[in-house]
Amino acid sequence: MSENSQLHQRLDELSNRLSQTRAHLEEKKLWNSGHHLTAGQLEARYVFLKKQIDHEAQDAEAHGRHVSDLERSVREWIGGLEIEG
Question: What proportion of the chain, given as a percentage, has pLDDT over 70?
C-alpha cells in the first residue's frame, strides 16, 4: 500500500470517527442535561483519554505508521467531544 493511500485511509478513519461523534452529539442534544461534570471528573476523563490516544498512537507506530502531532491533536479533540456528561 502506498504512503498516499495509507494517508487517505487514516484520514477516512478520522472522518468516520468524527461523523460518529457528531451523531452522538446530536443524540445528546435530545437528553436533558441537568448536570455537569465536576473538575475531578473532567481531569479523570482527560487522563483516560490521554492514555487511550497514546495507546492508539503506539499501536499505529508499531505498524509503521507515523502519528504526527496534528493527528494526535485531532484524535484528542474528537475524543474530548465524546465526553458523556
Answer: 85
Neighbour count for residue 71 (Cβ, 10 Å): 19
Residue 24 to residue 44: CA distance in whole angstroms: 21
The phi-psi region of residue 62 (left if phi > 0; otherwise alpha if psi is between -120 and 50; otherwise beta) is alpha
Instruction: Supply 64's cell numbers.
Output: 509503521
Cβ atoms of 56 and 75 closer than 8 Å: yes
Euclidean distance between CA atoms 26 and 54, whole angstroms: 27
Closest CA to 72 of 32, 14, 20, 3: 14
Q: How many CB atoms are closer than 10 A to CB 53?
A: 20
How sure is the predictor about 30, in pLDDT bands with cuts at 50, 70 and 90?
low
> Which value, in Å, is the radius of gyration of the alpha carbons in the chain?
15
Please state, as a whole number, how many other Cβ atoms lie within 10 Å of the Cβ of residue 75.
20
